Amino acid sequence: MNLINLFPLTILKDKIDISDDEKALMINEIRDMKKNSKNTNYQTKTNAWTGDTQGYEFIHKNVKFQNLFNEITKRIWEYLNCVEIDSKLIDLYIQRSWATISEGNERIKKHRHFQSHISFAFYLKKNKQDSNLVMFDESYKNEIMPGIFRSDTALQKGIVKKMNPFNVTQAIVNVEENDIIIFPSKTIHSTQPTESNDERISISADIVCIAKDSNLLEMGMPPLNEWTKM
Ligand SMILES: [Fe+2]
User: How far does residue 101's CA lie from ligand 1's centre (Å)?
Assistant: First the structure.
């Protein structure tokens, strides 16, 4: 007997090694951003601090993050290569980028990045106890009985004996400091619930792919210089 698994979600995971001095500069810069938050009402008790909601949504323009973003750019191209997107035919644009800080039980709830194509999370500061990343499936391809793999009672009654890689609808991606995770922006994700975040710091950004030439190309965004402001 063979089981054939088709149509995976592909996520790239890699390490980016940056000197401790450079990391300390970035961490201090992010702590300053948090101190000078512009919209403190936005953060509730259990929500992590997210810089994009606090006036700091373009950290890729900050020279202290330049080297990191150069390294990230190389990984984004590698990710595109894995799904056979030809780097010679598209341009990449970073739209916005921000840091997040989680303390204690603070978390980032389920969300997706609607306005972009590729997103990433880089873990600038993370210890073992800090929360990992959680990814959610929306296609439920093996869910023969609708809802059955998302039902607590189906597990409790034993109709679903256990979760395995063929039936899970959410999965924890374990991450360490200096890891980067690259994924399609449309993928729903969150941080893992925990009580013990010890100033976990991550950096995220949204990236779009633009066709260099849209002639005879139906899909994909046409070159920006062809856009006309209305
Ligand atoms: Fe996100």
Answer: 13
